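From the pipeline queue, job 12 of 40. The input is one protein chain; the requested action is below.

Action: predict structure.
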Amino acid sequence: MTTYRVAMVGACPYPVPQGSQVLLRATAGILRDRGHDVHLVVYAHGIGEDGSGLPIHRGPAIPGVRRTAAGPSPAKPILDAALAATLRRVVREQRIEIVHVHNYEALLVALAARTRPIVYHAHNAMADELPHFFTHQRLAGRFGAWLDGTFPRRADHVIAPHGVLASYLLGCGCLPGKVSVIAPSTDAREFEVARIEDAPPPVLYAGNLDAYQNLGLLTDAMAILRRSVPDARLIVATAAACALPEAEAVATPDFAALKRVLGSDAVCACPRTSWSGYPMKLLNAMAAGLACVACRGAGYPITHEHDGLLVDDNDAAAFAEALARLMDDAPLRRRLGANARATVEGRHDPDAIAAAIEDVYARVRIGRGT
């Protein structure tokens, strides 16, 4: 097997227990485990310790900049310009053969650094996600669509986590032979199987609190649920300060804390409807053998009634009904949870995902004549 020297780039704080950083670390880890020389290139700051053992090259620290939430900020252009210089140095000093960039800003960093070849690992479409961070959503959506039509096609290859995003990017000008669909990797062996009890469990949301997570739907669904189940509990496990009404906050500053939360019986809720991303929180919960309720627009890992429940986007009554159904039916939670873990083991197996990425690397190197 051919091995490669890879710069795995994330224009983001690291480590942070959010989906993009989890996918970044997982991708780097599975390639490292197969013998590749993988170097992380990330911002100077993060939350806690990494613990992966991967070599980390950080951009220079900027005094006063410690923000870890997703989305635009005044410091971003400075951080990204500094990271481009760091990437150029890493490529030169480590004799990097593949620049594998995660999410949009890392693509811009790599293009600014004039590094090649670039494998762009798409986490979202900007036309879909950018409006969540601005008041003038229509204008933000148009700008996002321009970004989608301008930059992804400049990469040597694009990896999309699902076919919907791949089709969108093809429509934005990416060439068919340069787009691959590769699902995120999740190692189910890292998660203890949750013990499902007979008593009704709490509802659990485990993830960040950014606007695109659509947490208003979960709040509305819980209000409806509590009309028939007044003592229904909502646990929010996050690294951020929780501000959801009538929710019990549990701090999860790192992956170990998240795994502890997922080790207890719960009905996991994913109210997100943003169509372009791939909720890693669902894969984590499914790997732990927990039953989940998700919206159809973003519930890509779930097959309805087989390994979870799907409801129509933004239907608070249907979401509440699905939560109540799982809370009241322990055998159903056990069946869906067992199937969910099997889904992760089968469709998101680290070795299979790494092999697919290696095939992309080989095609990119052949395409560039190296």
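Job complete. Residues 76-93 form the longest helix (18 residues).
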